[in-house]
Description:
Domain OmpR/PhoB-type: 122-217
Strand content: 15-25%
Radius of gyration: 20 Å
CATH architecture of the largest domain: 3-Layer(aba) Sandwich
Protein name: DNA-binding response regulator
Number of helices: 8
Distance between the termini: 23 Å
CATH topology of the largest domain: Rossmann fold
CATH superfamily of the largest domain: Response regulator
Strand order of the largest sheet: 2-1-3-4-5
Number of strands: 12
Largest sheet: 5 strands, parallel
Structural class: alpha/beta
DNA-binding region: 122-217
Organism: Pseudonocardia asaccharolytica DSM 44247 = NBRC 16224
CATH class of the largest domain: Alpha Beta
Domain Response regulatory: 3-117
Amino acid sequence: MTTVLLAEDDGAIAEPLSRALQREGYRVDVAADGVAVLDRVCNGDIDLLVLDLGLPGMDGLEVCRRLRPGFPDLPVLMLTARTDEVDFVVGLDAGADDYVGKPFRLAELLARVRALLRRLTPETVEVGGVRMELSGRRVLVDGSEVALANKEFELLRVLLLRAGQVVTREEILREVWNDPDLKTSKTLDMHMSWLRRKIGGERRIATVRGVGFRFNHD
């Protein structure tokens, strides 16, 4: 699951933003000061950092400067109450990838998060004879193109990007449907059955009973 580190000391901002990111299907960790941000990034897998400029202890600019040498590819979205163009430029020079000014619209911030994370996704994924061209939404199985419905394509994307790993039912439902009401339905099982028929059955997508599914390398 994609992990977002939210570096924000204002609970009135951090709590609703954390809930919104979780509804989008991300795992969210929260850090309230600059030193804690550095420690969390250095000690765990973080996919994106949402970084408040005005953190106590060490501000966001200094955090960014210190992180960049060791984590050059970590996407950083900086939050700031400053709206002067000079401040934006300084932040970008420090290593931020994008900026959102406070107060921000939640929908805009989430869109920027999605855009930054898309940069990390490879254009083409190929595992065990199945090739996905993500932006073109094409799937080839053993060299022949296969037509997938939208949810089938998204299911395959989630599994293929984590090939060899078990992906839980809950993670799939969050990422593909974003609808908790489906947790007690057979919707996932039906779509998985349709997908398997098109790409080679359980030889490629194994059921891990009681947990979820795994896309096999071989």
